[in-house]
Amino acid sequence: MKPNSPLKTFALIGAFLAAGTSGLAQVQSSGDLEQLRSAVQSMEQTIRELNRRIADLERQPKAAPPPVQPVGPEPAAPGAPQPTPPGADVTPKAPAPPSDLSDGTTQIPYHDTVKEEDLSAPRPGNAPLDPSYQGFMQLLGTKTWVKLGGYAKLDAIVDSTRMGNPNMFITARIPVEGEADYDKGEHFAMHAKQTRLNLELRSPTRLGALKIYYENDFFGNSTEPSMDYRLRHCYGQLANLTVGQTWTTFYDPDANPDTLDFEGPGVLPVLRQPELRYTLPIQKQAMYAAFAIEQPKSDLSNLPAGAEGRNTMPDFAGHWRWEGKPGHVQLGGVLRSLSYDNNAGPDDSALGWGVNCSGALKTFGADSLIASLSYGEGIGRYIQDLPTGSAGVVDASGDLHLLTAWGAMVGYRHQWSERWRSTLSYGYVQLDNRADQGAFAYDQTHYAQANLVWMPTRHFYVGLEYLYGVKEARNGNSGDDHRLQISMQYKLIR
Q: DSSP character for 228?
């Protein structure tokens, strides 16, 4: 027994109580004084015996204390699962998506952008920009994987003059001298219309990987601050066959500068519409061609009274594309029929066409250079800056004249550090207008933009952007606008 141990203490207390109890019992049975003396002497003898034993124990050499064991779990046996270190993430990891969710890969690198136009684009073999499928989770009891995405974005905008659209920097809507809103002074706007939600589903089938993509924003009424729902994308793709609404095949979403402004350079064919597209691989992961029939839409101006535009066939669009480590090049084309009906007079039709050449080039580090050039007759709405009715004009005799339009854009993105980046871009658009359109008809515009974007976390962005635009009308009158835009953005999946 160890000296001064709890066991020794309990023994002393037990002996004392036992002796005391025995003595008291004798007193209660006889009540005699002699018996009480005898009990007390017995107790004294017991105490002396205990004291002797304690003294013997204290004279014994003290044993060394056992080594202190480290706090924590015992080491696992060889081959056994290792214990989780303190502070480690114990969240159960979701199983990795299988490789059969896509039929191919792409050499286009993923970059954080404000508008994420490239993430929604159909790609050969349903190739994902992020091969790790970050954010995907399996639907219970199925082979389908789903990803919820999108962001919340707030824009605060100050213009030096009153713009035709305060929420988007459309250079075609800059008032020129002689128009009602010219030189009206500063104008402030705030909106969250660019906020969007998207849903991506992927599932393996016997014909290959199936992808369904949905996305909406709130630009249903682009000129008002109200949050009006608008469908952006809703399409499916299987075995390189795409059906539904998405980017026109004439457009290159990988050659769009990273702007805070929703519009971007006006020359770009940023257009979404219903289509049937087939993508033909030519060289694995490097070259392919795409062909599509797409929804037509008449955009003619100066129609005679009682006349209306007529669609006689779909728009035919396609592109050839090469992708590699240095970047990519895309050459696109569109062919469209433009005509109008007039119950009380003449009608006419013409065939419009357009070409677009675009691409991106990696430069230094994470920097990149992008460019786009468009040219055509009657392409109208395939250049986003052009106003409605810019494909063709009907003269006083009822003859339809297609308008020639062309434009170019160049942009450069610089990564200052992991959390800071900037984009600069310039765009130009010219339309060969006619006297039938009036003195203030669109003639040409210039667009310039520069920004600074800070990403303190992977989910939060803050940006400041300066934009400058100039518009010139057919009569030579012009107007310009300076815009400052501050944006804050929360992204859902990163």
A: B
Taking the C-alpha atoms of residue 301 and residue 392, their distance in angstroms, rounded to an integer, is 6
- Range of weakest confidence among 10-24, 159-173, 214-228: 10-24
Comparing CA positions, the residue from 325, 395, 397 lying closest to residue 362 is 325
Cα atoms in the Cβ-side hemisphere of radius 13 Å centred on 26: 17
Q: How is 381-419 classified by DSSP, letter by letter? A: GGSTTSPTT-SEEE-TTS-EEEPEEEEEEEEEEEE-SSS
DSSP 141: T
Burial class (CB in 10 A: 0-12, 13-18, 19+), 252: buried
Range 154-192+239-491 has CATH code 2.40.160.10? yes
Tokens of 246: 């998405």
Sign of CA dihedral 79, 85, 88, 92: positive
Strands 404-415 and 368-377: antiparallel
Query: For 384, what's the count of Cα atoms within 13 Å in the CB-facing half-sphere?
Result: 22
Distance, in Å, from the CA atom of 22 to the CA atom of 17, rounded to the nearest integer, reads 9
Surface-to-core class of residue 314, CB atoms within 10 Å of its CB (0-12 exposed, 13-18 middle, 19+ buried): middle
pLDDT-based confidence at residue 347 (cuts at 50, 70, 90): confident
Which distant-in-sequence residues (6+ apart) come within 8 Å of 456 by Cβ?
Answer: 419, 462
Q: What is the pLDDT of residue 49?
A: 74
**What residue type is assigned to position 341 of the chain?**
D
Tens digit of pLDDT for each residue in 279-313? 999 988 899 999 999 999 999 999 988 899 999 99
Q: Where are the domains of the chain?
A: 6-58, 154-192+239-491
Of 219 and 48, the one with more pLDDT = 219
Half-sphere exposure of 197 (CA within 13 A, CB side): 4
Q: Phi, psi at residue 23, to the nearest 5°?
A: -65, -45
CA distance 60 to 342: 123
Is residue 487 pLDDT above 50, yes or no? yes
Tens of pLDDT, residues 132-147: 888 899 999 899 999 9
Q: Is 38 exposed, middle or buried (0-12, 13-18, 19+ CB in 10 A)?
A: middle
